[in-house]
Structure formats: structure tokens, C-alpha cells
Amino acid sequence: MLKLTDVDTHYGPLPVLKSVSLEVRVGEIVCLLGGNASGKSTTMKTILGVVRPTAGRVEFEGDRIDGLATEVIARRGISLVPEARRIFARMTVWENLSMGAFTRQKAPAGEVAQDFERVWTLFPRLKERQHQLGGTLSGGEQQMLAIGRALMARPRLLLMDEPSMGLAPVLVDQVFDIIRAINGQGTTILVVEQNAPVALSIATRGYVLQNGRIVIHDTARILLATDYVRRAYLGED
Amino acid sequence: MADVLAILPQQLVFGLALGTVYGLVALGYTMVYGILFMINFAHGEIFMIGAYVGWWVLALLLQAQAGALHPAWVLPLMLLPAMLFTGALGVGLERFAYRPLYLRGATRLGPLISAIGASIFLQNAVMLTQGARMKVYMTSLLFPRDWRIQIAGASVSALVIVMVAVAGLMMWGLHLLVQRTTLGRSIRAVAEDREMAAIMGVNVRRVIALTFFMGSALGGAGGVLVGLYYTQIDFFMGYSAGLKAFTAAVLGGIGNIRGAMLGGLILGLVESLAVTFMNPAYKDVVAFVLLILVLVIRPTGLLGESVAARAKV
Amino acid sequence: MAQPGFPRWAAVLGLVALVAPLAAPNDYWIGVMARICLYATLALGLNIVVGFAGLLDLGYVAFFGIGSYLYTFLASAHFGLHLPFLVTLPIVILLTAGSGILIGAPTLRLAGDYLAIVTLGFGEITYLLLINLDRPVNITGGPSGIVGIDPPAVAGFALSTNTHYYYLFLAALGLTLLASARLRHSRIGWAWQAIREDELAARAMGINTTVAKLQAFAIGASFAGIGGSFLASWQRSVFPENFLFTESINILAMVIVGGMGNLLGVVAGAALLVSLPEVFRDLQRYRLLAFGLMLMVLMVFRPQGLLSFERKESSDD
Hints:
Chain A has 237 residues and is of the alpha/beta class. Chain A has helices at residues 40-48, 70-75, 93-100, 109-122, 124-128, 139-151, 169-184, 196-202, 220-225, 227-233; strands at residues 2-11, 14-24, 29-33, 55-60, 63-64, 78-81, 157-161, 188-193, 205-210, 213-219. Chain A contains ten helices and ten strands.
């Protein structure tokens, strides 16, 4: 479904991604692990066309998408739950969600309403607060809003950038349950995480990114058992 | 003192009329600042060019059919071309003088200097093509002087009522558009987080261009109204009017649409009071002092949020 | 430039400037050259505020006007004071520097375009005061300005010809150029540069940004005090129309064309913008049109300046 081949990305003269290749197949949850400044977020931005790769190719459902404008890529069915819950703080919860459905203005009338219901079912708290400004929500609620907003696009591929960051452990489990549920409803997911144990527990496969290079990739089960991953990300000696 | 009090109601009516137009022109500054964080210094010239287009239309209509003009159809005929022309001009400016800069991620001084260049360019382009001498709006043929009513000791002309109504309607329309429509939501989304808006599928460049179109069109409409009101226009009128409208925008809280309307009204009233109680020669000083005071003491304006926080974006 | 000095060819250029009046076709062109030196001095002053400290001052002409009128007050028949040139000039420089601090102080907390607008406002207010302060007491002479200003006289020798003024202005330009070069590599200069790059970081480094900014305003204004005195004594008259907003932009354009912060570039920018309209006199009508277009084109295609000889180190983006 999504395929990166030998992608290089630079910020100015600075190389951030070096020959990154990865693949996400239909129906999978793929997890991209890496520490700070390993290039995880840049990978997301490269896929979405926010930054342009300097070499290599990005393909989505068989078509090259590197070089396309971000909004064009979004319209093809990729959506993002951004890092640090970048919701629109000065817009209401309802408006945030309706921005999520921006690409679907030509969808049949009932469809978007249905999606609102789906988000309300997943996150009843958001329904209660639908007229509140996004900026007034708690951290956990903002994360839910960010997820809900991405779902409103009915993405075929959902990118998630550190969905567990800054959340209390209870909420982390809840968020990952939801990710699994979303995947169960047919959305393919690429999730970037530092919290490897939780991420790998729901993922089909995983990649480890270090200094802008993919150093390991394998099934989640094998990664969980790999010495290197255990040491680097599971905090074991 | 009794004299002053006698003319006060009249001055307040002037202030109200002027204030709504300041508010209308201020919207252009505030919308562009809200979305690009730049002062579109050329907005005053866009306002001036709106006044010229309105003058042309009126002159053509008068030529075709001297006398017997009814404002109910002439005014829309003046406003529409003026708004379309200035709107298109705003989009052109954005495309050629500002977009290359914001795409490069230039800091805030580059776009401002480019905008000052655009302002000087437009001013002189109008002077060279239209002449340096002022043009006279035949307002009295459209709104006869005896169309007026008395309210609380002030004589209010039909023109003033129409001005306030037109400006008020446009502001209300803009408010609805920004608050209630998908386009309005995408404008606010781009203003808040350009990158996330694009990820939502919003065509950011088009939204910015549309914002310029709307802001400039409202400025052009303001030009027509001011032309009708003052009856004299020249190529230089945009400079001080622009600065005042900018003051109004800052006063209300730049980036805030309701703030622009409020700021316009306050500035109009303060100016008319200043003329009543002070040496009229210092009328413009009042506006500038107000501008400096607001920026220095409360840069967020009356309704604004912290500009310092937004400036980091 | 590691050392506060200029490349050798700059010295050659200086020598050429010294003998230039000999090559001028007529007195008119010597006048043009004098004006180049005058404006280069002003542009160097603005360059300290905009180029060195990164504070976009759109009301620089206010200091030029204040300098001119102060000189006029002290050395003309207007108030009957006829102080000698060498007494008047230092007083004017000091007072203009003081006005720089006065106008700079309220803007200290403002950044970027807000600072620009406030300085513009001060420029406008200054102009409005110049044009209106003939009543109730005649201070500025109002719209008709003040005439009958004393020419500079040193040790009994009164300057009269354009050539005299040219050498006076050239000497001042040389001094301001040297002062600028020294300042740039002084402690203040580094503080300015730090503020220009990142004000918060500068403060974190222990730089007193308040003092440094006020110093920039004061020194920049003092150059305008010199320029203002020269203009008044050379024209033998001052008018408010000399100090319109377009003049601020004109001087700013010299700084931008030359490349902000680049000293010789700024001087070359002044030379270009003063002499071009003289060369294309027939196209005088189109001067401002071309000028506006130039500002836009420069910002879009070459924000580091047309005449930037150095590496792009000080443009604003």
C-alpha cells in the first residue's frame, strides 16, 4: 500500500533520512521505532509531502506521491494524527472534526454525519464538549480529538506520530486499544513510537530507525525478542 | 463650550460614518495579518484604487444618462466592479510580491518591505495614469443633499445611513462566512497551523489567495464609500487612510475580525471628538498617538490575543 | 573582514573620491556628488539600526528632520542665534542622539513589523509637528519652513561653493564609515548582531538588550543629526517637505540595495540611488514607480541586496 524506496531527506544541507526503505501492506499495523531525532517525524512529513525527499521514491497504492502537494496526498486517503496533538486550538471540537472531513465535501450527505457518530461512539467525551474550543480540552481529550479528526477523513492509511506521548499510562492503553479497533475496522496504520513495548504489542511488523537509517525490520514478535530492541527500547540490560 | 456641545451630535455622526469605513478597510489588514503575519502595507493603495474604479463607473453612468440616477442600482454598480478589481489586484500582489517570500520562509521584514514597494508602485502607477489632480465624485447627483433626517440634534444624510448599512452588511457577511462556512473554517485553520491545514487537505495557497481577495475587495468597497462621502479622491489618499485603518485593526486586536470593526468605530469616534475639541490640524496626530499607545501598552489590542505568542509561528 | 578595516581597493576608492571634483563636468555634478556623501552618511546611520541591530526603523527621517531644525534654531536668523558651526554641530549631534533614545525607548519591547509601524508613526508625528508648530508660537515656521540659515564657517573661512560642501560631506562620510566599521567589531557590535539573530538568546547570553538597542537608536540618530545639519546649512533653508515618509523609504532603500549591514554596499547604494535619477532625468516622472518596483523585485529575488560584496551574512532571512 505504502512503499518508500531509498528515500533521502535533507533539512537544508543537513541529511535527516538516509536511504530509508519501508513498506506498509494493506490491513497492517506497522510500527516505526526510534529515539529522539532519529528521523521518525521526518519520515511522516516526507510521506505527507510536507518536506520533499531529495532522492528515492514514495509510492502509495502503486502511484508515486513524492513531489505532490500535501493537500493532494491527503485527498488520496492518507491522514495523520500529529505529534504533540496539534489540534486547532481556536476552533471548536466540532469544527476540528469537520476540518478532518475537509476532503470529503462531495461525499453523500449522510456519510459525514455517520462519521461524526462513529467518533462520538469512540469518544463520548468529545460529544459532550463539541462546542468547546479545542484549546480548552485536557491533554488526553486533545489526543482523542486529534485521532477523531484524522478518522473523519476516512483514511485508507492512517499515520500516527507518537500517540502515547505525554499521556498517563491508563490513557496510553486506551489509545492503543482504539488504534487496534480502528485497524479492525479496515484502516491500515503506520505508527511512530518511542514506547516500543506497547506499540509492538499491537503491531504486525516493525522498523527501527536510528540516525536516519533503518537498522532493523522484522515482525513485531521477533522484534520484541531481539536483544538489540530489548536493550534500546524496552529498558532491559 | 456651548458651541462645541451643539456640534457634538453632528460630529458623532461623522465619527460613526468614518468609523464603519475604517473598520471595513481594517478587515483587509487583519485578515492578511491573521493568516500570513504580515502587514500588507499596500492595502491603503488598494482602497484608493477602489475609490478610482467607483469614480470611473459613476462618471460613465453620468455620461450615459445625466440626471435620473437612483442609488439603489447605481451604488451596487459602483461597488461590484471596484470590489472585483481590487480583489483581483490583491490576489496579484499576493502571487507576485508576497508568495515567493512566504514560500521561502522569509522573516517578517522582507514581506513588509516588499509591501511598501508595492504601495509606492501602485500610488505612482495611479498618479501617472490618472493624473496627480484630484477627481470629484458627483455624490450630490446620486444622494441629493436634502435627503436627510434629524436624529437627536444631528442631521443624518441618506448617504451616511447607506454607508453604515453597506459597511455593516459586508462585515456581517464576512463574519458569517468566516464562522459558519467550510471556507471560513479553512481560513481559520490555515491561520492557526498552515501545515496541519494542508494535511487536512486544504489547498493553503488558494486559501491565502482567497483571503487576499476578500480583504482587498472589502478595502475597495471602503474606497468607493469614502469617495462618495468626501467627494474628492486622489492617488495619495490611501496612505493616511491605510495607516488609520491599520491603527483600527491594531486597536481591536490584529487578526481578530470583530476587533477590526470595533477598532474602526472607536478610531472614527475619537477622531471626530478630537476635531471637535482640539486644533483640527492635529487630527492625524491623534490617530498616530493612539496607534503607538496601543502597540506599546497593549499590543494585543482590545479583543486580541497575545500577539507575542502568535508571532512565534 | 577580520580586522576593522577595509580592503586596499577601498583606500584607492577614497583617493578617487578626493580628486573626483576635478573630473566633474560642471558644478552641478559636484553638487550631486556632495548629495551622495550626505545620503551615504544618513544611510550608514540607518544601517546601524536596521543592518546591525536588525530593528526596522521606518521613521528614520524624523531624526534627519530633528537634526536639520535643531541646526536651524541654533544657527539662523529665526531665533537670532548664530552659534559657530563647530559649536552647533556637536550640540545637534548630542540632541539628535537624545531624540533617538526618546523615540527608541517606547519601542524596546516591540519586535519586527510592530516596531516598524511605531517608528513610522513617530516619523509622521514629527512631520505633522514640523508643519503645524508655527502656531500659537512660531517655532518651526510651519509649511513655509525657515530660510536664512548660516553657512558653516571654520576659523573665518565660510563654505560657499559645492566643492567646499563636497569635501565637508566627504570628510563626514569617511568618519562615519570608520566609526561604523569600528562599532561593528566592538562589544556593542557583537551585541547588536546577537540581538538581530535572536533577541531571546542574546538576553540569555547576558546581553543587556535594552541598552544595546538604545545605543543603536542613539548612534543611528546622531548620524542623522550630522546629515540634518549639513542639509540645513547647504540648502540655507529647511522645509517640512524635506522629511516625508518617502524620504525614510528612500534611505532605507539605499541600505537594502547595498545589502543590510554591508558598509561599502550601503555607500554604493546611496551613490546609486542618488545618481540614477540624475542620469535618467527625462524619466523623472517614473522615478518612484521604478523605485517601488525595485523594492519588490529585490525582496523577491535578492533579499541580501544588489551590491552585497560579502557573503550573505546579514540579510534578514
